[in-house]
Design goal:
237 residues; alpha/beta; 10 helices; 48% helix; signal; SGNH_hydro; Ester_Hydrolysis_Enzymes; phosphatidylcholine lysophospholipase activity; SGNH_hydro_sf
Length: 237
Amino acid sequence: MNLLRTRGIVPRLVAAFALLAMSASAVAQVPPPAHWKTDIATFVAHDRVDPPPQHGVLFIGSSSIRFWAPTLAHDFPGVPVIDRGFGGSAIADATYYADRIVTPYHPRLIVMYAGDNDIAGGDSPQQVIGEFKAFVKRVRRDLPGVPVAFISIKPSVARWTMWPAMREANQGIRRWAATQKNVRYVDTASKMLDAHGQPRPELLRDDGLHMKPAGYAIWIAALEPVLADYGFHTTEH
C-alpha cells in the first residue's frame, strides 16, 4: 500500500515542479513596467516635433543621465548629444525600448549609465553583467558595430551597503568589455571615492544618491577622451 501511494505521489511531484519551472520562465519574459510607457511616449513625441541630431552621441540610462539633460550639451560643446535618461530605470528597460530611443537616432556612440537601480532592486552582479551584454546585443541587431561605453556604477552614500555588489558588477563588465570590440568600460567610480575608500558626499545631492555638478565634472573628464577616440572632439568650455 505504501509503495502504491509513493508511486502516485512521485508523478504528481514531477508535474508540480514542471509547472513551477514553466511559471518561472513566463515571469522572466514579462516586459518592463508599463509606467515607462509615458516616458517613452514623451521622447517619441518630442522627436517628432524637434528631431534630435543623427549620428551623434546617445546618452542613455537612469536618473543620473536624466538629471544631466539641462547641461549635457554645454558639458560637451560642439558634440551632437542626445539625452535619453529616464529615472528609476534598469538596463533591461533601455534594451526593451531600444527600437524607440536608440535605433531611430543612428548614433555613432552610445554612452550608458545604468545598473545602480538593478542592484538596488535585488539583482545580482551576474544579472547586471548579463543585462548589459543583452543591451549591447540588442543594439547591434539594428546598428552593427556601434560603440557602447558603460559608465561605472557609482558609489553613493544612500546605497553604500550595496557597494560590494555594485563593485563586483563593475569589475565583471570591465573584464567583459576588454574582450569585446567597441565596448568600453569608463571608470569614474574610483574617482568618486576618498582616500579611505568611502563615497565623497561633496559630489552628491542631499539625497546622498544623485550627483552635483562636481560629480558630473568627474564623468566629463573621464568621457572626453573616449568621445575623442570615436571622432567627437569638444570645443573649448
